[in-house]
């Protein structure tokens, strides 16, 4: 597989922000509504706000799991924002990742999110496949999905960039080369 290019990295950053907002905004609105309707007066206010905060934190973690692990597992490797931005998570072989791979990717956002996401950005820009740490561990990669001729994107095909960086190739199983195929086995080299 070749280099996805910086365009995929930029789309991934936008996708990450959109998916975060998809979870955060409803949680914030819910927290505001709960505080507005049920807030106590006096000394009970601070314990109440702590309960609301920890409850919203728990709901946010559940929402993050839903959007970043369960949803892409059930919807062809795409979060809602990935679908909009024509991105998809696939294994290095071009197959659909397991639910476990999506869960591990989400858990490793703790590492990738270090220093407000700077760690994940640096790792992504430092490797040729534009993988963050969670992708490296789970052997997945985020690729662009080509548009179909009717203008829509194909949810069934992931695109890997061609030699000129254009995204025209379709992911498929990669052929493994043996030692004889690359000229490392002396026995087979003499017969050629």
Structure overview:
- The protein has a two-stranded antiparallel ribbon. Strands 3-4 form a two-stranded antiparallel ribbon.
- The model is unreliable at 155-186 and 188-192 (pLDDT under 50).
- The chain has one domain (6-144).
- It is 53% helix and 7% strand.
- It contains eight helices and four strands.
Q: Please state the CA-atom Rg, rounded to the nearest Å.
A: 22 Å
Average predicted confidence as pLDDT: 81
Shape by Cα distribution: elongated
| Oligomer designation | single chain
Query: Beta-sheet strand percentage?
Result: 5-15%
Tell me the number of strands: 4
- Biggest β-sheet description: 2 strands, antiparallel
> Helix-strand pattern, N to C?
HHHEHHHHEEEH
SS-based structural class?
A: mainly alpha
Count of spatially separate domains:
1
DSSP summary: helix tally = 8
Q: Helix content range of the residues, please?
A: 40-55%
Q: What is the rounded distance between the termini?
A: 28 Å
Give structural attributes:
two-stranded antiparallel sheet, 8 helices, two-stranded antiparallel ribbon, 7% strand, 192 residues, disordered C terminus, mainly alpha, 53% helix
In short:
The protein is mainly alpha-helical.
Question: What is the secondary structure topology, with strand pairs?
Answer:
Layout: H1 6-38, H2 45-74, H3 80-85, E1 87-91, H4 99-107, H5 109-112, H6 118-126, H7 133-138, E2 140-144, E3 159-160, E4 169-170, H8 186-189
């Amino acid at each position: 597989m070749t280099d996805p290019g910086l365009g995929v990295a930029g789309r991934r950053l936008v996708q990450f922000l959109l998916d975060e907002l998809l979870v955060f905004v409803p949680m914030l609105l819910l927290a505001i509504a709960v505080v507005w309707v049920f807030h106590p007066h006096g000394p009970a206010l601070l314990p109440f706000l702590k309960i609301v905060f920890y409850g919203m934190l728990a709901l946010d973690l559940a929402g993050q799991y839903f959007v970043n692990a369960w949803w892409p597992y059930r919807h062809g490797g795409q979060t809602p924002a990935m679908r909009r931005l024509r991105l998809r998570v696939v294994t290095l072989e071009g197959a659909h990742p397991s639910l476990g791979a999506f869960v591990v990717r989400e858990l490793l956002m703790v590492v990738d999110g270090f220093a407000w996401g700077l760690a994940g950005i640096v790792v992504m820009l430092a490797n040729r496949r534009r993988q963050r740490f969670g992708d490296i561990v789970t052997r997945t990669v985020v690729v662009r999905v080509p548009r179909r001729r009717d203008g829509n994107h194909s949810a069934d095909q992931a695109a890997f960039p061609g030699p000129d960086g254009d995204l025209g190739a379709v992911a498929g199983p990669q052929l493994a080369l043996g030692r004889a195929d690359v000229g490392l086995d002396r026995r087979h080299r003499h017969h050629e």
